[in-house]
Specification:
Helix content is 14%, strand content 34%. The chain is built from four helices and 16 strands. It has a five-stranded mixed barrel. Strands 9-10 form a two-stranded antiparallel sheet. A hairpin with a 5-residue loop joins strand 11 and strand 12. The two termini are 37 Å apart.
């Protein structure tokens, strides 16, 4: 189940101008005890969620935790829907990977979104992530090192470390997927993880599967991601440190830049430049 973030008044996604997000995903008020809305305040978050480790700590004292809902029947992973305008993205190909063996451990697909001054809709999303950091820091007795200012960053690691079972299963990547043999050179230590899902909104509001090439700066998107917490144990020699990251699961393009211009959004929400018929159309921020 994917959760919506509760905003200052009602559900945060309903505060985007012209119902940009609500039209795509109608539903979700708190009436009737709707369970797929998650609070953003620290107190309510602590009441409704629990932090649990995925596995024992590694030798370097680093441990990864997940955020789960408190349910009597079953414990559900907290996966959240975020909305915003693409500020920067590296979703195509192998993202940040330069093809070198030693950089495979850090290779990732990345996406950054911003609110363009729509505080009522975007602010609660920032507050939600900050609350997770405070919640985790309190629970694990560590300092919150999450770097969060005015945008949200999502990441999806490209590779996973091979296991004993993988060693007997040689991977032969298709030439079209690995023309220069880079994947083959690292396949003894690293294997490709499944990529995030990519969608776009069709003319009839239906979801159409697409590729990473469909996403550009200023597109308005829905991002499904789950929080993960990295805990570094100082073992008394240094302060314990916690950091919240948002792992990218799926992205849906709700409106591209051209469609946004056609919506005639209030200028205060937009700050973009487009080319149309060889004439530059500059949309300046203005007072409503």
């Amino acid at each position: 189940m994917h959760f919506f973030i509760l905003g200052y008044t009602g559900v945060a996604k309903d505060h985007w101008p012209l119902d940009m997000a609500a039209k795509h995903n109608p539903v979700n008020t708190l009436e009737g005890g709707c369970i797929n809305v998650i609070p953003y305040t620290l107190e309510e978050l602590a009441e409704r969620t629990v932090i649990d480790a995925y596995r024992p700590p590694k030798h370097d004292r680093v441990q990864k935790f997940g955020l789960f809902t408190r349910q009597d029947i079953e414990q559900m992973h907290v996966s959240v829907r975020f909305y915003g305008f693409i500020k920067e993205s590296k979703l195509t190909g192998y993202g940040t990977w330069n093809g070198a063996f030693r950089s495979a451990c850090r290779a990732s697909l990345r996406l950054e979104i911003e609110g363009k001054n729509c505080e009522q809709a975007f602010g609660p999303q920032l507050h939600f992530v900050r609350s997770i950091g405070a919640h985790v820091a309190q629970a694990l007795q560590g300092n919150d090192m999450t770097n969060l200012e005015t945008s949200l960053r999502f990441e999806h690691m490209i590779f996973r470390k091979t296991t004993t079972d993988d060693q007997s299963d040689r991977v032969n990547y298709p030439r079209g997927e690995d023309p220069m043999g880079k994947l083959a050179r690292v396949s003894r230590e690293w294997r490709l993880k499944p990529k995030p899902l990519f969608y776009k909104r069709g003319d009839d509001n239906e979801l159409l599967q697409t590729t990473a090439l469909s996403f550009n700066t200023n597109d308005f998107v829905e991002v499904i991601a789950h929080p993960e917490i990295i805990f570094r144990d100082g073992h008394g020699h240094a302060p314990n440190k916690v950091q919240v990251s948002l792992t990218l699961d799926a992205v849906t393009r709700l409106f591209n830049e051209e469609q946004l211009i056609g919506l005639h959004l209030p200028a205060i929400f937009m700050q973009m430049t487009v080319q149309e018929d060889e004439h530059a159309l500059q949309i300046e921020r203005a007072e409503l």
